[in-house]
UniProtKB/TrEMBL annotation:
Organism classification: Bacteria, Pseudomonadati, Pseudomonadota, Alphaproteobacteria, Hyphomicrobiales
First-listed, main subcellular location of the protein, grouped into a coarse class: cytoplasm
Name of this protein: Acetate kinase
Cofactor binding annotation: Mg(2+). Can also accept Mn(2+).
Species this chain originates from: Bradyrhizobium lablabi
Swiss-Prot/TrEMBL keywords: ATP-binding, Cytoplasm, Kinase, Magnesium, Metal-binding, Nucleotide-binding, Transferase
Gene name linked to the record: ackA
Keyword Magnesium: yes
Primary role: Catalyzes the formation of acetyl phosphate from acetate and ATP. Can also catalyze the reverse reaction.
């Protein structure tokens, strides 16, 4: 059986999924896994398609000291115990920089170019690249494909792509890239199948998860994003503040004596819902909490989603549909209802019953702007990209194997 391994590597965990490829290029998910606690208390967990446990085991810290080692241990488990030897590996890479508007096969030259963007995504890019480098070193003939979170947004108009700063900085790469592109691309590909009536129109997609952003799409293409140079901008997130006056950063450095590294940690880890509430970064816990600060964090979140919807509606010069996706967007009828209240002026009226059922279409039939819930699947998007890059690069690729 031909399989594709999809890898999403972070600082302390590596998530992976395996997709089987049939003769017609259809992909079927086989399993999901995760190595957590890298460098502290490593633990491999994996489940099959029906949620059945395939692995749940701890490793000694020295066996899984870093992200690369985590992927090697997970790869050995796949090969030795499940007899899975992937024909290719697709990687989520957060930053493709200004030049990459599509997925691309990995080679040493690409890795060197992508390393230049570590400064633009310091908490993600090095960890995304580490397993790529170790697979290149250990399995040089194993095809790998890099799939970028920025790529889907690369076609933005110049007015959406630039900051009002000297052009030299734009040329150096200080641009409004936008992120969550693999999620938005999956939604754009899915809408013609599940909601063809809106797929070619002006659609605002709200990817509301631990990381959160919104994308304005016209005809299935991104025209504006709430995220910019880094994944800090836009909506408040689990631990990131979203839009913030750069003067606050200057204040933290000048008045609080915070170093750039400390400010970075603060903005990525201590702000957002966690910082606002002092209770949790997790929306489920906030919804369950009786603490007034938790309630305020929820109010703030819905308010900012509403504000950003106004901005994106202006970018699109009107809205034909609104789509919720990701952990909060797909699962929380309460948050969807709160957000919908903020969108009433746009012509949104929710159907409470359909919303409670997490139906595909959750707006009333008379709602001027229909509202949908469309589950995202970034891993499937990566697997699809990996396959099409491979088939584009080499029609005999189906017969290639990891050495
Ligand atoms: P993601 O990053 O897409 O996995 O989304 C994670 C976020 O979704 C966390 O804040 C979770 O609390 C939130 N979430 C998941 N399920 C629910 C739910 N049923 N109700 C509210 N929030 C949820």
């Amino acid at each position: 059986m031909d399989t594709i391994l999809v890898v999403n590597a972070g600082s302390s965990s590596v998530k992976f999924q395996v997709f089987a490829v049939d003769g017609d290029g259809r992909l079927q998910r086989q399993l999901k896994g995760q190595m957590d606690g890298i460098g502290s208390r490593p633990r491999l967990r994996a489940t099959g398609v029906k949620g059945d446990t395939l692995a749940d085991r701890a490793y000694p810290i020295e066996a899984v000291a870093d992200v690369s080692a985590a992927l090697m241990v997970a790869g050995s488990w796949l090969r030795d115990e499940l007899r899975i030897t992937p024909m290719a590996v697709g990687h989520r890479v957060v930053h493709g920089g200004p030049d990459h508007d599509r997925p691309i096969p990995v080679d040493h030259g690409l890795v060197a170019r992508l390393e230049r963007y570590i400064a633009l995504a310091p908490l993600h890019q090095p960890h995304n690249l580490a397993p790529i480098k170790s697979l290149l070193a250990n399995f040089p003939s194993l095809p790998q494909v890099a799939c970028f979170d920025t790529a889907f947004h690369r076609g933005h108009d110049a007015v959406a792509d630039q900051y009002a700063i000297p052009y030299q900085l734009y040329e150096e790469g200080v641009r409004r890239y936008g992120f969550h592109g693999l999620s938005y691309e999956y939604i754009a590909r899915t809408l013609p199948k599940v909601a063809p009536e809106i797929a070619t129109g002006r659609v605002i997609v709200a990817h509301l998860g631990s990381g959160a952003s919104m994308c304005a799409m016209r005809g299935g293409r991104s025209v504006e994003s709430t995220m910019g140079f880094t994944a800090l901008d836009g909506l408040p997130m689990g631990t990131r503040p979203g839009q913030i006056d750069p003067g606050v950063v200057l204040y933290l450095m000048a008045e609080k004596g915070m170093t750039p590294g400390r400010v970075q940690d603060f903005l990525y880890r201590d702000c957002g819902l966690k910082g606002l509430s002092g209770v949790s970064n997790d929306m489920r816990e906030l919804l369950e909490s009786h603490d007034p600060r938790a309630a305020f964090a929820i109010d703030y979140f819905a308010y900012r989603v509403g504000l950003c919807a106004g901005m994106l509606a202006a970018a699109l010069q009107g809205v034909d549909a609104f789509v919720f996706t990701a952990g909060i967007g797909e699962n929380s009828s309460a948050i969807r209802a709160r957000v919908a209240e903020k969108l009433a002026w746009l012509g949104v009226s929710l159907d409470a019953g359909e919303n409670a059922k997490h139906a595909l279409k959750i707006s009333q039939s008379g709602s001027r702007v229909p509202v949908y819930v469309v589950p995202t699947d970034e891993e499937r998007m990566i697997a699809e990209h990996t396959l099409s890059v491979l088939w584009g690069a080499n029609s005999n690729i189906k017969h290639m194997r990891a050495s």
